[in-house]
Target: Response regulatory domain-containing protein
Amino acid sequence: MYDCNIVVIDDDIITLELVQLILEEIILGEIHVFSDSKQALDYVQSNNMDNISLVICDWLMPEVSGLHVLAALRKSKPECPFLMLTANATKQLVVDSMRLGATDFIVKPFQTHDLLTKVERLIRDADG
Model:
């Protein structure tokens, strides 16, 4: 179990709830979920990010894309791990995301084990 706080952003409610349920297996801290990308962006740009250990964010969302959320996160908390969640892992997405500082990717649909493995590695790496 990891005592940390995570932000999860996805406009698909089913995916959002699934990720939250999976994370509850290993996270003792808070899991902040957002289905509205604009609200999520506001949260990422606020002072609330001080205690956040990881952001998991969908790439393609209405209003604000995952790339915009990533860019905002890098301005407010550059060292925070960012896991891009996408159904379309194109070469251009990977290049653009890496340029902006995405830490890793996971492609939808994903297996529970794959998500847990990536999240655990990102949290451990961030803790040094």
Summary: The chain has one domain: 5-127. The chain is about 45% helix and 20% strand. Strands lie at 5-9, 31-34, 52-58, 82-86, 104-107. The chain has a mean pLDDT of 93.
